[in-house]
Amino acid sequence: MAFDGIFLSGIKNELEKYLLGGRIFKVTEPERDEIILTVKNNGSAYKLSVSVNPSLSVCMLTDINKQSPINAPTFVMLLRKHIQNGKILSITQPNVDRVIDMEIEHMNELGDMVKLHLCSEFMGKYSNIILCDNDYNIIDSIKRIPSTVSSVREVLPGKKYFIPDGNKLSLNTLNKEQLFESIREKKCILQKAIYMSITGLSPVIANEICIDSGLPADLPATSVSLSEIEKLYNSLIKLRDRCINNDFTFAIYRDSHSNKPEFSAVPLTNGYYDSVEYDSPSKLLADFYNSKALRNRIAQKSIEYRKLTSNLLERETKKLALQEKQLENTLDRDKYRIYGELLQAYGYNVDSDAESITVPNFYDNNNNITIPLKKELTPLENANYYFKKYNKLKRTYESVSLLIEETEREINALRSVFNALEISENEDDLIEIREELHSLGYIKKQGKDKLNKTPKPMHYISSDGFDIYVGKNNYQNEYVTFKLADPNDWWFHAKDMPGSHVIVKANDRELTDKTFEEAAALAAYYSAAGNAKTNEQTKIEVDYVRRKELKKPPKANPGLVIYHTNYSLIANTDISALKKADE
């Protein structure tokens, strides 16, 4: 994601607007890698969240209350001692890098006014919050980094604070000659050379710079000419001016290939669509990361059920293999029936000590067949022996066939549960999945969970204005198919695999070809072979039929339907052009 120096510049401007001159009223550390500063300024209180979690290093204004641990961590106690009640004098961003330097005036224990610097670095796994004195000597940090961990910079009390820039150029002091030398020495494509040469730039922004300057992003950096450097320089200066003039457009976009969201402080053009603009970078981050945090939380909470379902699937698959092997051993059972019947017909010709007899087989054009015999048994007893063997194998075949049907139903049900876990979006989805696992007898009922009376399937609008509903689990599949759909609505499902039921509301209209394609794409995308998680495009066969052609077998599991007449098409799993309806 593009939480780079450019986006951070927009955050810095917002912090200056609301926090500059304010006093730090409260300091908390709700997580071991996050602090929240409550700042009172101009009659209002603002909360600044600074997170240096490796996967979520951001800072933003927030209105979310987070519970603090009972025992305050050491670092927050240090901050309370040194900066609580302090006045924020300045908020700067050195070299447009991913660093915020907050200068704070505070009265020390001797009653003297001193200046301190709270430096927050947002650099992925190297992110940190560091408190320094006015000469940038480190007082302490939320993450201590000894020389055994980093040979580039120690972050320990008493050490000198500096920002490791990796010999990158600053956007603030950029000149053409330095840019030319730095770009040309990089043995990579131009896009990568740009963000490797200049502080604070992300690959996404580097790509936009290439587009703005009219140069291919995959151009070898070693072959860039002076005239092309001139174009790059002009684009970079435009970007710098945006930062200086606070000329930002904060928006969330979706990638047209992967459908993944991306945010930026400058317009993204190539390969992005469906932008949602914000007037505040903090509001954007709150929406973006709250959604991401929800997905992560749902994924974390579903781990138990993923593991359970995976183990059950493995068990049932092994059981099915054994049952199929057992069934295979019964496939020649008719041979023993024929032996018995032929012995009844020709047994009078058997010698008393014969080990076999060859007789015409009236089931096979009277071709001769040799029947093994037990010498200690009479011909009639041999015939009865084969009849008993046949009947035993027949009973085994019938019982094992039923067991295989049952096991296959279990496997299909578990696969559909696993697929539902993959596409679940919220707590209600998990409750419905837990209810299904309970109904299948795999888990005990959890009394605290309440199943929604009206499930909430996904709702899309086709390009031609038709409502499309997608079930995320079997309870929702049951709902959209047998409650939400009318008899003449169209039903879509990936062929011969677990997946979502997709319903298109016809409303007495003829569906357009485009709508058929889009509904089929949704059925393919949200199937077991689809790409709801991997975002890799593929093609899948999808069945579709009028809803009135569907039947539900008696006592069947939720979401199970049968149909005998249908149409099929090959659907692409690209749903990037489809938008979810605003509920």
Content of β-strand: 15-25%
Note the main sheet. Answer: 7 strands, antiparallel
Low-pLDDT stretches are none
Count the helices. How many? 13
- Choose one word for the global shape: elongated
What's the gyration radius in Å? 35 Å
How many extended strands?
A: 21
Q: Residue-averaged pLDDT, rounded?
A: 89
Secondary structure: helix percent: 25-40%
Can you offer a commentary on this structure?
With 583 residues, the chain is of the alpha+beta class. The strands form five sheets. Strands 20-19-17-18-16-15-21 form a seven-stranded antiparallel beta sheet. Strands 5-6-7-8-9 form a five-stranded antiparallel beta sheet, with helices on one face. Helix 5 crosses helix 6, helix 8 runs antiparallel to helix 10 and helix 9 packs antiparallel against helix 10. It starts with a helix and ends with a strand.
Short description:
The chain has 583 residues and is α+β, with helices and mostly antiparallel strands. The chain has 13 helices and 21 strands. The strands form five sheets. The protein has a seven-stranded antiparallel sheet.
